[in-house]
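Hey L., structure's done. Input below.
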Amino acid sequence: MKYARRVDRNHGEIASALRKIGVHVVDLSRCGDGVPDLVCFQRGVVTWVEVKDGKKRPSARRLTDEQEKWHADAAVHGVRVHVVETIEQAIALFGGARCC
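Output:
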């Protein structure tokens, strides 16, 4: 089992922003093996999120081989992993909802 070596600079900011709009966020970034960074729950819907740092050069933002495999395996079962680079992209996954 390979463990994640690092998280992207914006990882915490994105997780925090999602929590502020009422999304339950579980940080899986330390799991490794290509597992997406976040699994999010809102209104009975599960959303898988991979966080990439949009300020890095494109080659540094690409999915690792393990992530590519995880995404492909999930897709076979009808599960999509959303890749986000900004807080706005992450919030848009949940309809741009604002917390009460």
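The chain has four helices and four strands. The domain at 11-92 is CATH 3.40.1350.10 (Trna Endonuclease; Chain: A, domain 1).

-- N.
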